[in-house]
Amino acid sequence: MPIADFLIIGGGIIGLNCARQLKRRYPDLTVTVIEKESGTGMHASGRNSGVLHAGFYYSPDSLKAKFTRIGNKELTEYCEFRKIFINRCGKLVVAKNVGEHAGLDELLRRGAANGIDLEDISEEEAKRIEPRVKTCERAIYSPKTSTVDPAKVLKSMTTDAVQEGVKIHCGVRYLKRTPDSILSTGGNYSAGYVVNAAGLYADHIAKDFGFSEKYKILPFKGLYLYSNEPVGSVRTNIYPVPDLKNPFLGVHVTVTAEGKAKIGPTAIPAFWREQYSGLDNFKVSELLDLTMRQANLFMFSGFDFKQLAVQEMKKYSRLHMVSLASSLMEGVSQENYRTWGKPGIRAQLVDTERKKLEMDFVLEGDDRSMHILNAISPAFTCSIPFSDYVCDHIQKVYSKKQYD
Predict the structure, then answer these.
(1) Which DSSP category does 242 fall into?
(2) Where do runs of H (alpha helix) occur along 5-88?
(3) What pLDDT, in 10s, does the model give residues 72-127?
(4) Tens-digit pLDDT profile for residues 127-159
(5) What sign results for the dihedral spanned by CA atoms 18, 24, 26, 29?
(6) Selection from 36, 29, 277 nearest residue 166 by Cα
(7) Which DSSP letter does residue 230 get?
(8) For 174-204, what is each residue's pLDDT tens digit?
(9) Residue 120, Cβ density class (10 Å: 0-12 exposed, 13-18 middle, ≥19 buried)
């Protein structure tokens, strides 16, 4: 039976960084990551937009606000050290009309409270940054927003983890917890402490340990449409003023690390957890569970889930996506946006008691296990300091357990 002083379930960017941090803190102990896929970062971490967010969207009292600014800095420094290219393209947040200026003001207020470098600029200044941009009189410019290739970041961090002494077992799926071990498709593991960083299945695994009693994952599918225009046709990311009552930022224009433009993403409710394409990974039990949960939210949610779902389902239409992006930028046409990118699925946590989407990161744990239940955007940007925060919690309870 393999022995792991620390067993991390899930080889995404949070799982890898938790493993690396635990190995630094406990160099004489064994740290093992089990990942059900053939490689690391094959779900949300490797399928995300690659945007390194600056941190001005989030309420100042949130964990997201605490970690996004420093996460942007630390992940930028990591990419520089590992010679991973960073597209320092910045971001414009634009207003469709004067009524959205109050939203710009709120973002500026949050940015100031969070210590973020932002510029309140005129329409003319916005057009000097991006000649194709559309905005009403004003815009916000974020110079610290950038983009990277997430696959390259995950590959580098995986290599680092192995070189630092972390054991990574791919093709090994968690099955269940027994009184004495963790049962997996790779056999039983004797684990001193378990870290659940399983993304879409984090709530299922947490329940085996007595946690996530009021939480369930509700998956949302994210799709981008890629432009066939030449590299450099768009200079900067362009985002709308968001509805800060929900965790989605709306359809926007993203400039990739390679300099190509894409529009999206969608946030379409999925009917099973890994509904990437066709009937891949289809599970009847998940279809029934998610259909019932979505129906419940339609009728009883503390926010307008029905409106959200209807709006998002429309985004399966390429014409509708192009229309939304056209409000942000000149020259967006169906001819230039024909190719859908690789879909990603957001593991969005729902509080089933209050019937609301959780806006912030959520952790639950004790002296035997820690469960990362809501590592949603901007978790990629926050991955290094957020993983340190998770390990701070683990170290407190683990050290006390060792002492006792």
Answers:
(1) P
(2) 13-25, 44-47, 63-81
(3) 999 999 999 999 999 999 999 999 999 999 999 999 999 999 999 999 999 999 99
(4) 999 999 999 999 999 999 999 999 999 999 999
(5) positive
(6) 29
(7) P
(8) 999 998 899 999 999 999 999 999 999 999 9
(9) middle
For 306-317, b/e burial (b = at least 16 CB within 10 A) is: eebbebbeebee
Neighbours of 240 (CB within 10 A): 21
Q: pLDDT-based confidence at 31, cuts 50/70/90?
A: very high
What tokens were used for 97?
A: 């009309």
Among the listed residues 74, 95, 248, 72, the one whose alpha carbon sits nearest the alpha carbon of residue 143: 72
Nearest Cα residue to 366 out of 396, 344, 336: 396
Tokens, residue 90: 């910045």
Domains of the chain: 1-50+149-214+358-404 (3.50.50.60), 216-352 (3.30.9)
**Cα Rg of the chain, angstroms:** 21
- For the chain, how many residues are written? 404
Residue 326, token pair as written in the block: 């056209």
Q: Tell me whether residue 157 is exposed, middle or buried, using C-beta atoms within 10 angstroms of its C-beta: 0 to 12, 13 to 18, 19 or more.
A: buried
CA distance 171 to 34: 8
Dist. CA 351–CA 216, nearest whole Å: 7
The answer to whether residues 17 and 8 touch, using CB atoms and an 8 Å cutoff, is no
What pLDDT score was predicted for residue 398? 82
Single pTM value for the model: 0.95
